[in-house]
Structures are given as structure tokens and as C-alpha cells.
Amino acid sequence: MRTDQLIAALVADRTASAPFVRRLMLSLLAGGLVSLGLFWLTLRPRPDLEPALETWRFDFKIALMMLTVLLAFGFCRDVASPIVRPHPARRLLLSAAAIAAAIAAELILVPQASWGTRLVGSNSLICMSAIPFFSLAPLAAVLLILRSGAPASPMLAGAAAGVLAAACGATLYAFHCFDDSPLFVATWYTLAALPVVAIGAWAGHRLLRW
Amino acid sequence: MSSPKDLSALMRAARAGDGEAYRQLLGEVAIWLRGVVRRGLVRAAMGVEDSEDIVQETLLAMHLKRDSWDDSQPLEPWLRAIAHHKLVDQLRRRGFREHLDIDDHAETLAAPDKGDEGSSVDARQMLSTLPERQRLIVGAISIEGHSARDVGQQLGMSEGAVRVALHRALKLLAVAYRREPS
To answer: CB-based contacts of B23: which residues, under 8 Å, 6+ apart?
Structure first.
């Protein structure tokens, strides 16, 4: 086949899809709904949700997770492009700064004797398994859309998908989790996200090459 | 290329369904790519015999990935990035590990190049990797120059079904280019 003949075939192919960002959003929503269903079948929100909503620690935790979902979405969008942008993950520092400020507040408000208990919490094992579990459907959904992208680095794109999926999983789990201390959230939520990011990077390396 | 053309405008028109604009865009890009690929191969001290394969593989990638271009941005950096990715990928497959900068010779995509020789070179017989029906469809449209509707009538398929098969075939071709060592 000559190149001008190939071009004729390309011109005849008019398959067009919706803008990338919209497809990513819809797919993530679908994956998130699957995880929401699983969440409802298993852990469910904590029974004292209403009083919890009146405490700054719980509200901060939820807001931080939602902020991280938004930031990770931008991260994913940027690394789906063939154009290399410097420091695409830098925006996540905003989440890190927020949790650092909350940790500082916690250390000031709470006597030193209870720092340890708050850090260890009561739910760390469930947290470490539930967040990856609720991340699986969003991860698959995001990777599926990233396959139609043209990531400059497939592994980085997969890792970004992992961050976004883990943020979604953590948002759901946060409604169940009784440990609201920023000390707990910073430690265990981050540790729980790591395997998801690693799986994402591995899957990206395998599935997102083009 | 006598006058530099607004490639972004061509791609926007193509997105709006203007096939002629798309053909013109791909033609311009193919000429530019031919130069980029040859220079890249020469700089990596490799033969240029199969450079047209890389040109075709890159055109296919641009076509299949065109939705990843954000049309509020100029098209050229995106095109350059795709070409860079494909060229680096091909060179790596051939054992070249050093850094390669493809852009320093061509400031603009519309830089005049050595004409259009190469478009008449028959690249590898990639069509033979396709299942029979898809090979027939791609061959009828590309080599024989028929429209999707005509092909549909010949094969007893709807025009839509022909287009779906064509799109699948192009995706398979892209995979075949990646898989086969050239």
C-alpha cells in the first residue's frame, strides 16, 4: 500500500468520538457507580454520619478526598497527551499542603499522649484493603479511556490513572471510616493508594503503549 | 508545499466532516514526516530503505489518536509529539538508545522538503495481515479508490457497516505495524 493510498483509507474513516475529557468523565462516573454499589453492599457509610458531618476532621477528610479526585483528573488528562508537560503531578502538592496544614492543626489541638492512638487508629487494616478494592472499577474505567489517548509515557499515564482511581476509592471509603484524624488519613490512605498506583503503572506500561 | 498552510484550521475542518481538508492535511503531514523520519534514521546511523513504513505507521497513529488533540491548541506541537514518539519507538526497536531531537532541522512543519518522492514507494504489504473481508474493504477504498458506499454495494453491506469494518481494520493495521519488526 502506498502512502497516498493509506491516506485515502484514513480519509474514508470518519469515526469520531466525543471529546477526551468528556469520555474520561463519563467512564470514571460509571466506574465510580460500580464502586458505590459495592460500597453499599459491603461497608456502607458509618451509622453516625450526621453527627460526624458536624466535625471539622470528618468534613476535612471528605473535602480533601474530593479535591484529590479533581486534581488527579487533571493529572490524567495531561499525561494522556503526547506532548510532555513539565511536572504534571505537581498539582497534587495542593492536597499534600492541605493535609500538612491539617496535621499541624491536629498536633496543636491534641495532647501529645494521644498522637500515637490517633495515628494508628482502629481501622487501618480495613482501610488498606477497602481503598484498593473500591479503586478497581474506576481504575479499569480510566485505563479504558486512556487507551484511546496518546500518552507520551504509558507508565506515567497508568500511574496517574492509579492516583485518580485510588482517590475515588478513598472518597467512598472515607464515608465509612471512623478514623478522622489527619494523622491517620495522611498515613493509611496514602499507604493504601500505593498498590493502586503501582498496579496502574504496571497496567499502563502493558496496555497504554501505542 | 509552496505556501505554509494553517494545519490547525485544516484539522478543525476535518473534524467538522470536511474530507478534502483532511486529505490535504494528511498529504502535507506525510511530506513533512518523510523528511523528519529520514533525518532521524540518518542521525541514528541507520538505513532509510524502510522509512516509508515509519511514515505510514505515524500517519495511522495520528489518525487513530486525533481525538487527543485539544483543538484550542495549535496542531503542530501535537503532530511533532506524535512523530517523535513513533520515531523514538522505531529507533529503540532497532537498538538505538541515545537521545534524539527531531525538531532542530525543521522549525516549521511547512518547511519545504525534497518534494513528494516516496509517496509512490510501496511500503510493506501490511494489508496481508488483515482478515479477508477487512483486507478487501481497505484495498477497495485505498488502492482502487472506491467510496464506502460503493464498496458496501459490492459486498452487500451497508455503508455504515463498511465504515465500522474499515475503522477496525485501521486499528489492526496500527497494531501490525507495531508488532512486526521492520
So the answer is: A7, A8, A11
